[in-house]
Write a structure and sequence with these properties.
single chain; 189 residues; alpha/beta; 4-stranded mixed sheet; 6 helices; 22% strand
């Protein structure tokens, strides 16, 4: 089993409580990167979404689907410093990202996401190794599902997980983006 680097604290919130429509406001902005567009959204608790794609409207739709009970407010100025850190992380993997995260998922998903943050850049693991990291070696498919449910691209680095044979497999934001992120990290390692 792989030795893990120390992890930072992540604010974890259960996704089970439902909020009334408009009870929560998420501030968000979009910006171009070398990997396409990125949407960054924040709640009062921290960054809750970093989504990547090629179409701004599709990214906003994805955000609304992930947070159906939230009001969305496009607010470039209040999200700008967060956006700058996200873009730095995308463009230069390994850059520290030290803003609070507002993770929303099941207890299992949060265990997987916490483990992902301990995988060093340039040292990808298999889905089997990821399941072993969280102490659930039989939960390989569930660990892969938690990666797919991750709403925080790059800072919860699910792109660092490969098939057992070392090949690149699915990535919520596109296999080519995953390939490019891994290549950037390997070049810096």
């Amino acid at each position: 089993m792989r030795t893990l680097s120390p992890t930072r604290q992540i604010r974890e919130r259960s996704s089970s409580p439902r909020h009334r429509r408009g009870a929560e406001t998420l501030r968000f902005a979009t910006a171009p990167t070398s990997l396409g567009l990125v949407l960054v959204a924040a709640s009062t608790h921290g960054v809750c979404a970093i989504l990547m794609g090629d179409d701004a409207n599709a990214l906003v739709d994805d955000l609304q689907q992930r947070f159906p009970d939230a009001s969305l407010l496009r607010d470039n100025p209040s999200v700008q410093s967060t956006m700058n850190q996200v873009i730095s992380t995308i463009e230069s993997p390994g850059c520290p990202f030290d803003l609070p995260l507002d993770l929303r998922g099941t207890a299992f998903q949060q265990r997987v996401w916490q483990a992902l943050t301990r995988i060093p850049a340039g040292e990808p693991v298999s889905y089997t190794e990821l399941a072993e990291m969280i102490g659930s070696p039989q939960a390989v498919r569930a660990a892969a599902g938690a990666c797919a449910a991750n709403a925080l691209a790059v800072v919860i680095p699910c792109h660092r997980v490969l098939r057992h044979d070392g090949r690149i497999s699915g990535y919520r934001w596109g296999v080519e983006r995953k390939r490019q992120l891994l290549a950037r990290e390997a070049a810096r390692a």
